[in-house]
Amino acid sequence: MITVHGFSPSGNCHKLRLLLEQLGERYDWVEVDSSQGQTRTPEFLALNPNGKVPVVEFSDGRTLSESNAILYYLADGSDFLPVDLWQRAQALSWMNFEQYSHEPCIAVARFIAGWTPLDSPRRAELPKLRERGHQALAVMERHLQTSEWFTGDRYGIADIALHAYTDVAEHGGIALSPYPAIRAWLARVRATPGFIALPEPGPQAARLIAQTL
Question: Which spans in the chain are helix H?
Answer without folding.
Answer: 11-23, 42-47, 67-75, 85-97, 108-115, 126-144, 157-166, 180-190, 203-212
